[in-house]
Amino acid sequence: MCPRFVFLSRINPRCFGVRVGPVSPVSIALFDWPHRMFGVTLGAVVKRIFSVPRLVRMSDLQRILSNNKAAEQLLESLKQELKEIKNEQVQRKIAVLQAENETLRRQVDSCLKKLISLEVAHGKVQIPVPTPDEVRAGCGATTVKMESAQPPVKKETPPEATPSVKQQQNENKPPKEKKPKKEKPAGEAKAAGGAPAAEEPPIDVGRLDMRVGRIVEVSRHPDADSLYVEKIDCGEPTGPRTVISGLVKYVPIEEMQNRMVVALCNLKPAKMRGILSEAMVMCASTPERVEILAPPEGAVPGDLVHVEGYPRVPDAVMNPKKKIFETVAPDLKTNGELVACYKDGTFVVPGKGAVKAQTLKNVQVK
């Protein structure tokens, strides 16, 4: 074959940007010298030169992928082993707890049998009780089979003495001296005679001793930031009462001084943070606001507060055990006209007017 056609069959000059045209002997010599010297065509040499970096890059990528796959397989095997170890530990713990529970159950059963035997020995009647398994299964109670206790031994009593022996014993006894009876005083005799006791009035607002008072002195409690210590003049000869009120958050101290109030005066005195409180200031109250009830104009300290429809029969001091105030309190409210009420009866000072709140309607009075 002609060298010209041999070269053209081995390499495509267009790969190198060479425009193919009539081939001259010079161009044939230019492209065919590697084949003549080394037996390799120029195209093969160029192809090998450009393919080596690509082979290098492909081998690195394959190695990275294989390493990644091996790492994933290792992680998966480690996770599986860790899961198996956890399951094994859980099973061991369950087995230990089941053994402990079984031991405790046997001890409880033993103690229960001893207790039942002791109760039966002392004559205690045993009531059959279903076991938890029977309850879950829906079965009834099973009878408890225990040895019946021996009947108590009756003491032998001597036969009754004959009438002649009894008469002889009575004759031998010395006669008893009669003691003179003590005469009871006339008052005690009437009390013992069972005079009917006065009936206790019904538990309603009439049992509360509410009076008009004036705050003559007020200060902050030394041991509580939310409490006032007040001196309230209720028109009593013993002087002002000490009252503790939790009004710091709702009423400024300037508005407390010389204020007219309604005081509940027959609560049992109680200490609040070390200071004895002898009454309670009545207020209209919500969770957000508190207003002190205001007596009518013209009221003076000592005026009694009545509730229409309920006669005023207050206890001297209400017994906390009878819970009188706790029973009455749910029905103490203000109506739509700001007047304090118990059910349908309004708080009034006779001849002077009604007791009112400033702005709170239809709220609880405490």
UniProtKB/TrEMBL annotation:
Keywords: Coiled coil, RNA-binding, tRNA-binding
Gene3D superfamilies: Nucleic acid-binding proteins
Top-rank taxon: Eukaryota
InterPro entries to which the protein is assigned, alphabetical: NA-bd_OB-fold, tRNA-bd_dom, Tyrosine-tRNA_ligase_regulator
GO cellular component: cytoplasm
Protein name per UniProt: tRNA-binding domain-containing protein
Coiled coil: 61-114
Keyword Zinc among record annotations: no
TRNA-binding domain ranges (all copies): 204-306
Organism encoding this protein: Anopheles farauti
